[in-house]
Amino acid sequence: MLSERRLEVLRAIVQDYVGTEEPVGSKALTERHRLGVSPATVRNDMALLEEEGYIAQPHTSAGRIPTDKGYRLFVDRLAGVKPLSSPERRAIQNFLDGAVDLDDVVGRTVRLLAQLTRQVAVVQYPSLTRSTVRHVELLSLAPARLMLVLITDTGRVEQRLIDCPSPFGEASLADLRARLNSRVVGRRFTDVPPLVQDLPESFEADDRGTVSTVLSTLLETLVEEAEERLMIGGTANLTRFGHDFPLTIRPVLEALEEQVVLLKLLGEANESGMAVRIGHENAYEGLNSTSVVSVGYGSGGETVAKLGVVGPTRMDYPGTMGAVRAVARYVGQILAES
Amino acid sequence: MLSERRLEVLRAIVQDYVGTEEPVGSKALTERHRLGVSPATVRNDMALLEEEGYIAQPHTSAGRIPTDKGYRLFVDRLAGVKPLSSPERRAIQNFLDGAVDLDDVVGRTVRLLAQLTRQVAVVQYPSLTRSTVRHVELLSLAPARLMLVLITDTGRVEQRLIDCPSPFGEASLADLRARLNSRVVGRRFTDVPPLVQDLPESFEADDRGTVSTVLSTLLETLVEEAEERLMIGGTANLTRFGHDFPLTIRPVLEALEEQVVLLKLLGEANESGMAVRIGHENAYEGLNSTSVVSVGYGSGGETVAKLGVVGPTRMDYPGTMGAVRAVARYVGQILAES
DNA sequence: TCTGGCACTCGAACGTACAGAGTGCCAACG
DNA sequence: CGTTGGCACTCTGTACGTTCGAGTGCCAGA
Description:
The structure is a homodimer of 338-residue chains. Chain A has 338 residues and is an alpha+beta fold. Helices cover 47% and strands 17% of the residues of chain A. In chain A, helix 1 (4-20) packs across helix 3 (39-51). At the A-B interface, strand 4, strand 5, strand 6 and helix 10 of A face strand 4, strand 5, strand 6 and helix 10 of B.
């Protein structure tokens, strides 16, 4: 068990290291923080903290830097989430309010987040699996060619081309369109499949093939779109990473291009709260020297997608968490309004 | 005027420098290339080339490196476009053939280009201004709320919400939808405005406000979408840039996030051929130590958008140009087929 | 016009020395 | 027992001087 003061020492180390990016020694610590004890005492505490694995020395006779475990303790017990100032909040709201469509909302969010945290921002487009259907449209492009357009309540539009097994008349088309909409509009994507299962039966034999094709395309679209889209921004902030540059930055850039990796990272954000993955806690090894702060966002209590930032383990956790949470809230509001 | 041999020396310098990334001296040159003359002669030639501004020395008594002007001459007169090998061509075609929709085509293209050139790839989505309308759909979401969906022949879908000044009946809606489509389907975007100008007049007074709103939204969409979307990839290749890292890479990453800047860069690609902008020829100063190779692509002789790569001025121009041209061709083919 | 020779320059690499920051340990103190 | 001041030790980073080598410019001769 660590005494109160030892925790205080760890907190001071983390704060100083985050600020200076340099290993911090006992003397500097006592000067910068009012710990009320002498450097020698701090040295003893540091030796203990090191023994427990919370801090480490890059080399003998250098200062200490926090380990992943140290950051973890810091985040869990020593640091709160730093709320943004109210001018900041207003700025966020104003900036997001200017968005004209979904792409714009996501684009603005990613820029905002990158700017606030001075790190790399990642924003997932609102997920279709959680959304509901606003409208399904069927268009006839050619005698045996249809286009299926799916419109969601989050403002997303997906379209698919369909080659029909047999020509499909305008009347049947209108019929199918009407029936489809009456059954699925307002429904959640996950609820759709059983609702349309029996539709082909109510059509004439000639048309059943086409109806089935349309339905399977629709269901496919719902599933496929679980494979989400992402937007990232602020990669230029990577250049602030440190001195040991190319080695650190390269795998990060690679990871950022692997949407699958990013989605997994974001995916680890807990339903309710914020998730902070520190260094080696990230499964993807290219990101072993970075931390990921992510959180879900959505409108009206529903989490429709996630967003977060990727930065060095040596980051300002309270500030970053505050910014991420605030942005997530405001984006949720914007989505709810539109 | 530069003699044949001097040009040959310049070519050798460029090739060696691109290969080794190190200033190249007279002795090394004669060893690596069969110039048929001694190092002393080459030195004289180099002195002259330097006087003319084609090469420079980083410091006295170091080898020479090409200047932007030197690269320019190299590209214009000394180097051809290196065609890809036929296995490469097959690989490209196979890879692009697997694409399922427009997003996928662009995504694959950007990855392909980044991989082939080992540089940063930028691909513009097919432009709407050049495309034609495949279908316009109008949906009623609420009594006084419509959704406009625009579908293009390149497979893009755009949607806009419309708040009507007055309620709009289903009959009027169907009427407007039919008239709109009969007038604009198959037309180029730029041709649309005059074709729909007189539409409000043929509706009843009550509906004219709404019809006008719909039309202006439609025209707005066409124009707004001239503000194009981009996809970029291969940013990890920036880490191969050089030793003077952070200074070079930072402004490039920043530029890459400024879509406007990128669009301008691509925009400089000539209608017909390929454009190569070397170093300071780029208007944006963050890219002063990079070169941009760009070319238009499209289906059936029409240029619908552009693509290209951004890399260090010290790049393999013939190879890069070959890859860019080849990819552009195949993307054009794919678009023509779909 | 080309070539070989020669003196010169300058950066990169290496070794040494030194200062500074930080540590661990220990004895002493409240 | 926890805390403190003192002290010897161990590193890294920096500065400095030397050497080495690649490359140059110039010149005289073929």
